Amino acid sequence: MGNEIIIGDRLRQARLDKNISIDELQQKTKIQKRYLEAIESGNFAALPGAYYVRTFIRQYAEAVGEKGDVLVDIYDGKDGIDSESRRAQPETVQGSRKALHEEKSRNKTTREHLPVVLLGFIAFMIVGVIAYAAWQDRNSDPVISRTTSSLQVENSVSTEQNQDQSSEQDSAESTETTSSSEEDQMEVSMEDSTQSQATIQVTNAEDPLELEVTGKNDRAWVGVSVNGNYTLQETLQPGQTENTTIPEGTENFVVTLGASANVDVTVNDQEVDFDDPNYELLRKDLNFEVTYQD
């Protein structure tokens, strides 16, 4: 039917969530262990027939708290797995926080340079007036002549003062740019951790957040939930990568990992380190708390 592996993974994950071994499940359902293992691996062809497939799915689901009728409908093709597990990616709203920040920076730069331009224009006018007065003096017969060397010294002092002011302004702008760049750096850190969950703190984030999950070692189920709704549900194969965009302005979301040792997670191309040496990497909820740049 095409959905056998997903049905098997969902049942297996439900069993692991309830800490039920395959032998305990055999005692509860009275289904032979080899058939239970075949269901979990998606090998429905190993079961006696279609009737037993449906019956075993319902019995397995009832034992682990899943909806057996829904899974049977998915197996029969009456209910598509895509309609249940996937949602449309959120659209990026035009005029994002980053664009507004860049526009404000451009306006601020223009305002900062305006006084410099005005000062330069005034200085040019003053130099022009002095040059004109000097030319008039040279063409007249003054009682006391003004030497050329004194004009050169005054012009030299004025030029040095302007250069010093320009250097100080450039230095201040460079310091402000470096400070702003350091403040805007996004940081991702794990604040606390237990066997089943961890809190991931993201600071100085830029909208929108791009979340990427990559499978490794073996299969692993991944779910991304925002306000109780899944934006991504996928069973990853080793080497498979899936992406999802977190809705703009979201401050909290949850990434559920069915087998966390088999998944790498990045946010805006920055790796999320959720490995805790005190606990084995099994099923784990990563609770993200996000603060954005002003």
UniProtKB/TrEMBL annotation:
The keyword Membrane applies. Keywords: Membrane, Transmembrane, Transmembrane helix. Residues 158-180 have a biased composition (Low complexity). Gene3D superfamilies: lambda repressor-like DNA-binding domains. Residues 81-109, 146-198 are annotated as: Disordered. Residues 146-157 have a biased composition (Polar residues). Pfam families: HTH_25 (PF13413), RodZ_C (PF13464). Residues 99-109 have a biased composition (Basic and acidic residues). Residues 218-276 form the Cytoskeleton protein RodZ-like C-terminal domain. PANTHER family: CYTOSKELETON PROTEIN RODZ, PTHR34475. This is Transcriptional regulator. It comes from Tetragenococcus muriaticus 3MR10-3. The lineage of its organism: Bacteria, Bacillati, Bacillota, Bacilli, Lactobacillales.
